[in-house]
Amino acid sequence: MSSSIITASYDRQVRFWDPVSGRTIRNLVFADSQINALSVSKDRCRLAVAGHGIIRYYDIASSSQYPPAVATFECSSAGNFTAIGHMPLDSGAGSLLFACSEDGALRILDPRQASMSLLKECTTGVSMTCATLSQDGRLLITGSQIGKVSVWYCKSFIEDAGAGSTISTKPLQELSFPGDHTAIRSISFSPLSNWVAIATNAGKVHCLAFSKDVHHRDGHNVPAASADASPQRSAFLSANSQHQRSLSDAAGQASDNTSVVSGGQPGGTPVREGPTPNGSALDDATTSLSTPANTQAVVTKPPSMLLSKEQKEWFLECVQTMTCHYKYILKVAISPDGKLLATCCADYTIGLWTIPKLLARPTEVEDMLKSPAASPKASEAAATEVTSPAPLASTAPLPPALSPKVSMSSMSPQRDAASLAAASVASPPVGAKLANPYEFAALKPLQGHTRWVWDCAFSPCSTVLVTVSSDNHVRVWSNVHTDKPKSDIFVGHTKPVVCVLLDVDRTRFGET
């Protein structure tokens, strides 16, 4: 099966584009409603299309010009399905689907039958706007209309949780962001699944890292807001410790172990306008296991089912917040090489940001560099390295020029998690003075669309970016790492284009 670019529009069409010629090679009509979300299976044989109250599953491996629908799920009370994705089974026997919708429900579906079966339904009571699965398939993160983020453990959806366990219907963690109670618009995991970017209607991007990784950086002058001693982490650990003591009490009495997290504010009606420029550089996330709608954000005594290794391992903390735009951010994406962050905005532009090496570097590299066996030369190199990257200059060596109209096979990532780790740079020594090691550097934004930019997708090599917009156009940008990006326009849709995917045969590049 050849590689293609897949786009969906409010004209109720899904188009498959040839990336070389820019012409439409297949066309799928979704007659039920407008299209809100797309997802292609890992084997590239199935395409899930989500609309208003309906999800259809298509066999795109078919040689037919018009791929047939092999499964359907309908729920009129769901409203718009706002996100959909594949959840691979551990057995390798296909995938499940996850879908979130305006009725506040997260649904797990089995598409292996003509009428999709509903395996689980988790109701949050708040309209859900987006969802994404980590690269390793362990975590699912959802966002809501009131600015709340929920972290779910995927294995609990797939396996039988057993009697007495309710972890499969409750999130591991819930977060909100003080000063930004606007809708969560988009979520993106890093290629190594070690941090998350979350974009909101306020034009902000909140960067969250796992607490276990933040703790490893404690010796490198990480800001206090990111250290293990943060109020969120301390309150959480304190609640766990107190609960364990209460379990060992001879009388079996449960104590009230509620800790208030400073800075928490109640959620409110989402603000539909961008924030006023105020120079704010860093906001901590207010983390809660239970966040009442009309009280301060609190960390309550966790029930026994939350005292698990998963709960402790996947605790997220906000390490950086940046104002990227002054209008809604509609999509955030991290490049496969882990170096670039892209933001699609209602101001008609695509923002580009270089990711600091402290986020791009995996934990294994840190442990290796802190090991006594590290060579003196490596230590000397680490002492002279700068962790906060500078914008790419026009005089820097550039990758070979790519025309957007090239074969997708030339967009090979040529690296996996191990090579990413080997290419990462060491931390500065203890005592080094750093203003902010989580600082992102802005590159020249991409300009060319004349209406809202809804979605984007990086090529596997991270040098090509495909964007779609309300101007009905698909743009393919090349050389996005440089200060002279180029773009070609694909024309065919007659209404706003809101979704884009790259259907690439990654096994040809050594990916699994």
TrEMBL record:
It comes from the Eukaryota. InterPro entries: MLST8 (IPR037588), Quinoprotein_ADH-like_sf (IPR011047), WD40/YVTN_repeat-like_dom_sf (IPR015943), WD40_rpt (IPR001680). Residues 219-296, 370-396 are annotated as: Disordered. WD repeats lie at residues 1-27, 322-355, 446-478. GO terms for biological process: regulation of actin cytoskeleton organization; TOR signaling. One of its GO terms (cellular component) is TORC2 complex. SUPFAM superfamilies: Quinoprotein alcohol dehydrogenase-like (SSF50998). Gene3D superfamilies: YVTN repeat-like/Quinoprotein amine dehydrogenase (2.130.10.10). PROSITE patterns: WD_REPEATS_2, WD_REPEATS_REGION. SMART domains: WD40. Residues 229-247, 285-296 have a biased composition (Polar residues). Keywords: WD repeat. Belongs to the WD repeat LST8 family. This is Target of rapamycin complex subunit LST8. It comes from Bodo saltans (Flagellated protozoan).
